[in-house]
Predict the structure.
Amino acid sequence: MTPDVAALLEVQNDDLRIYDIEDKLAALAPRLAALEKDRRRADEALTQAKQQVEAEEKRQRDVQDRLRQHREMRDKSENLLGQVTAPREAAAAMAQIDQAKKFIADEERELDQLGQRLADLRHSVTDRDNAVKEIERVQLETRAALDTDRAALEKELASVSADRESKAKDVPRPMLQKYDRIRSKRRSTAVFPLRGKSCAHCDTAIPVQRHSTMLHTGTMELCEGCGVLLYAAEG
Ligand SMILES: [Zn+2]
């Protein structure tokens, strides 16, 4: 292996570390996005529960109004019954009282059911409100942890990148450019040694003539099989 190739392999080591750090940085954002989605879902569930409470409260007020009217109707008819003397008028008042009592019984039953349902719904509002607060707490914690992770990764990235640039100065320009072209397409290892007379990455054999040139001059060749840069490890 020539000193140029050795220098290029040093650069490649740093590039692989850089890809790894970049991948870790890219993985941070989806964690926050997932939490944000959870939070939106929890917010919607809370809003829905609150709307259900409002709707049931409105029904409750309507039933209470009707109940009040029917109780007044009953009281009026009972008063009337105390005053009338004619049997027909008394019968009419009693019929009114029966009718009003039937309404009152229905409405009282409905109010009982509404009261039960409202208690359940208010309970669910409390639960969902707590769920939203819990997600907000986790979001804050996660954001803080991610910020710490991000800062550490960015610091590491800056340091490795600076190393990489200084090592790249030891590599001849055309070799570095060729390497950069291949690695930008692959975004992973771009330089492989020959294993015997074949590419160590894909096992495609190198033509005899090119193999002997590589051995004697230390040049690098593109693999015809997979397109990586090949160097002769021994010789
Ligand atoms: Zn290959």
Summary: The helical segments are 3-83, 87-168, 173-186, 208-217.
